[in-house]
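Order emerges. As here.
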Amino acid sequence: MSKRTPLNVRYRHALPKKGIVDPFLEERLKLKELRDKDISVKLERETYIREEDSEILDDNGHLINIETLQLQPSEVFFLHFALQATDVYQNSIKLSTSDLLSTLWPSRLADDKFILNYIVYHHYRSLGWCVRSGIKFGTDWLLYKRGPPFHHAEFTLLILPNYKDDVKNSNIAKDYVWLSSLNRVVSSVRKNLVLVFLDVPDQSAIDDAKSVSEILNLYKIHEVLYRRWIPNKNRD
């Protein structure tokens, strides 16, 4: 094997052997001298409080914490009924589970918006999902694996009541244009649209139910994952 010839690398501008001269040394020393000086500037200004800000300050001028935790009706009832982690008071009176349900669900209708939302909320919370409102995407709920601080929502839920009466189903049916428009909005934020069909029981069954558990068992959930069909990507 032939020996490799060693490479000789030379700089175009040779440095002096006795040291490197810094042409900006004097300038850097002046900047260092300015930084080391203790420069103090006294600002004299008046401090005044606006009238609209006086309500959020106490007598000592400290800011009052006015932030409150806001929960949706489904979240309140789940914490009270399913987890038994909260007590709810109304006019300083502690509400029982039945009283709270009557307050949140006064109509007692089988297709009331509250009970439909709670059935779906309870179902997915029981499966371990973190459920949040999906109103900003035009849907009912969002599903997070852990929560908004950790992950983006992977699925968004749209609740569609399914009646035994075909006439009612035809009155609330959505056409393809509406569904495609909603899915386009959801897809633009990288989420999957899930259509949650909720079988609505007869009103007589709701009236005869004596407990919350009996009411929950009257509803059935069917899930459909909706995705837009693209010919270029979904060919056989």
In short: Residues 4-20 have pLDDT under 50 and may be disordered.
